[in-house]
Amino acid sequence: MKLSLRGRLLVAGAVAVAVALALAGVGLAQLFGTHVERRAMAELSVQLDQVLAGLALQDGALALATPPADPRFARPYGGLYWQIGTADALLRSRSLWDHELALPPDRLADGEVHAHRLSGPGGQELLVLERSVALPRRLGGGTARAAVAMQTADLAVAKRAFVADMTPYLALLGLVLIAAQAAQVTVGLSPLRRLGARVAALRNGAATRMGSDWPSEVEPLAEEIDGLLAAREADVERARARAGDLAHGLKTPLQALLGEAGRLRDRGNTGAAEGIEHVVGTMRAHVDRELARARAAAQVRSVTADAGKVAGRVVSVLERTPAGGRLEWHVDVPEGLTLAIDAADLAEALGALAENAARHARRRVTISAQRSDGMATLSVEDDGPGLPPERIAAIAARGTRADEAGAGTGLGLAIATEAAQAAGGRLRLENGATGLAARLDLPIPAAEAVRAKT
């Protein structure tokens, strides 16, 4: 299954948003952890100052006369610890119980502070802040190494709580960003949808050019399409001109041959005259067919034809012929029905079908039309004997005739078929209620279809 361009952009954007927010979440959690650790170090510094400020001599020995106020220092394994070491004594908080902070053997200048991560009571990791101080004479002199510590598990808990609080907001932000990206993709791809609609309008005849109202990225494509259309229209004109030249070039010699046939008939040579007339008739039919094919191949989609008017003209011509003059003609075509086909091509196709119906009808030929879903069906029905089902599929082929015993070249149905296919339609043959029914399914111009629906 191929993913659409819009789908690809949406998926790529959603993945990018998810990755970016995930990285942002990791970065924010890391920054928060650093901030919490910095705040913990500041708190430990205050605690260390309090421990050093509470030192005093009691009974000639160094002691912590005023312990820090935080109750965790007095609770065994409470999470906050202090320790003071001198050359001949080691003071510890009750929270350390029987544990001693194993400070690294580094040298500290007076007042210098070091931070460490050490193992504490019960194997818990501790964040340790130590300071070396020179004791005054009232405290017995000498150097003391004081340290306060807190378990890092509290920092990890704070970090996890921050991540838990942050995750829903990041998820909400992700949804908002994806929605905004979807709107951006929709707006950005709207010219492509317009492009497809305009190409469809060119195809069904609702427009003749792409126009110039396009973004700069799409405008070159629209200009190329317009250039192709202009070149095609030039080809159309050349093809029609060549078709006209062919018609004029062949009709004069054919007319001369008919004149020669007439002179032969006047001299009593009827057989030769009929032979020439038959050959000329066949040649004329082939010329007409090739001219129809040239027009169909060069047809422009924007042409239209009024089905009722064309049907009326075809009937008025056939009523003057011997075969058509004996029949009753009935035209039932909705007024104003417009078809997406050249009027001359429609007249030729409809004329071929009506002429065929006139040859086989007993008393009546009906031409009718119906609309359905952007298409119209133009039907020519006679009240003749119809055709066996096995003959219907073959008679529209080149040179195949409905009545092999009658006159004609059999090209009328082929001409009608090619004209219908060139316009985007088709020819169907079937036995109707009274005789043979030839149905032309032809497209309705887009603008006409919209008006019909409204």
From TrEMBL:
One GO cellular component term: plasma membrane
Any one of the GO BP annotations: phosphorelay signal transduction system
Subcellular location as annotated: Membrane
Keywords assigned: Kinase, Membrane, Phosphoprotein, Transferase, Transmembrane, Transmembrane helix
PROSITE patterns: HIS_KIN (PS50109)
Reaction catalyzed: ATP + protein L-histidine = ADP + protein N-phospho-L-histidine
Name of the protein in question: histidine kinase
Originating organism: Rhodosalinus halophilus
